[in-house]
Amino acid sequence: MKDSEKIITLNHGSGGKISHDLISGLFLKYFNNKILNRLSDSAVIDSFEEKLSFTTDAFVVEPIFFPGGNIGKLAVCGTVNDLAVSGAVPKYLSASFIIEEGFSITDLEKIIKSIAEEASMAGVAIVTGDTKVVPKGKCDKIFISTSGIGFLKKEFENIGLATKVKTGDKLVVNGTLGDHAIAILASRESLKFETEILSDCSSLNHLIQKSLTVCPHITFMRDITRGGLTTIAVELASMIKKGIMLNEADIPVKEGVQAVCEIFGFDPLILANEGKVLMAVPPEYAGSVLENLRNDPLGQDAAIIGEFTDDHPGKVVLKTIAGGKRLVDMPAGVQLPRIC
Amino acid sequence: MKDSEKIITLNHGSGGKISHDLISGLFLKYFNNKILNRLSDSAVIDSFEEKLSFTTDAFVVEPIFFPGGNIGKLAVCGTVNDLAVSGAVPKYLSASFIIEEGFSITDLEKIIKSIAEEASMAGVAIVTGDTKVVPKGKCDKIFISTSGIGFLKKEFENIGLATKVKTGDKLVVNGTLGDHAIAILASRESLKFETEILSDCSSLNHLIQKSLTVCPHITFMRDITRGGLTTIAVELASMIKKGIMLNEADIPVKEGVQAVCEIFGFDPLILANEGKVLMAVPPEYAGSVLENLRNDPLGQDAAIIGEFTDDHPGKVVLKTIAGGKRLVDMPAGVQLPRIC
Hints:
The structure is a homodimer. By secondary structure, chain A is of the alpha+beta class.
């Protein structure tokens, strides 16, 4: 295909391999600078006594209201979590809205109210914003972009880069995987469950701050969103050239989520979450970090799901429930578009 | 009309009265905080030794390529200018993209390249970003949201609030009004001119920094975008409860722009600009500020266009070329949708 014939596909927004190629091939090529090149979710900016963390995300989720949240709540959680996993205390958010002509102001108010409530819960202020309206048919209801600033202690500035991870460090998640994606799918397909599956959409900053207080030795954190656990694990292994072994039996997945995955042929490990964090913790601290997580409503189902190895450096191996081992790779494209 | 029947109209995004009502009635109601309530284009954030300025804007301009710029260049200029008029030195930008499935990657590359070039010219770095893709028909080609952080000296922190403006202060603009809006209109309508009208889309931060160096006594600055000169003048008069007198004869408007305005029945004073700043300057400094502006390529057509009065406090009066005087008011809605 000639360069001039290349078009954007849904896969470019998937968070998988094709997204990565677009970002490195195009964005990094032009925007090339030390801060961006870290390719962490937040920009860490030298400033005065402390560091600043600065991040942005666009939210285009469909449907805009879903079990467990809506696009407004999501737009706060997503940006708060990006700041929190950088080690920062999230402080200030901006919100910019692109709204379709004809959109219900009642719905807009619900969204705005939800943004305000979630921001208050997370302890951040929405300090600046913008609103654009486009003619009917030129966007789908409402899109929201949020940016955030957080204050970051110097000791945590490289936590997103995993520079301190050692072989034997444990991988910990704060709960079940795939809830958000399945909640979205269920509302699109009007699936009915015995127990409704809610999106896990939530601001993790307080949980993360508590974890860093209990254990300042956490060596890596990343929120598990588009692309799921697999994508992050593969990125992480390849970034620090260590092996990762994941134990399928230890990875928490809700029964309902597992059931839907079997019906649709989805892999819960590549499904999106909006309230999950992956942490790397030195083995001697893993127990206390886990206990601390489980004492929080957002970490009740926390689990140790794997560890870093010297074997197969740069690769991720899954020890399956059946007892086998298989190499896992980043999904090439998108399982579910417009998940966030 | 019942509340539940209210819908978003293009006027809600116009920057005029209806936008203002939406923002105060909905956004401020929920997001209520001291920083946001300033309703300045940038959030001024207490931090360490200096202040931070933080701003965001969504860009949905149509067409995405227009004479004098494109949506990428615009997305940098708009945010840089919001920071610059707050008195800050713009430093870091985020960029989040919402792209329609099927969008040309060649066009995306042109846009990205243009963002990089304009950022480099303005001396800012794009330090973080995000990309979402929505299915064909769910947005119109590409939307970009940029946020920016700038560093702000304490002495300038209230420049956007005009707290130091005194009666007799002069109003200065750095050039002709309406160029951006007419360039957009011309490309939509395929109008041909003897001399093509280019958008004035440009980063004003260096020009503004030079002005603040020549005259740290500048008492107000705002970039003149959606809603045009009239909207800003009316907001300003009402904010500080002083009168403003504008001299139509002194307001620079290109002949071609004037001609198009006459044909379409537009008022150049409410047309959008993307490279224009309105400054308030004590009369004793107005001459040197004007000279300094005129020595810069972005200020060649700078002019003193009016002054603050004790008469008609809170109102804006235009002394017309014909010699009459008339009260001007904020436009209620939108002249041209998707201008930025």
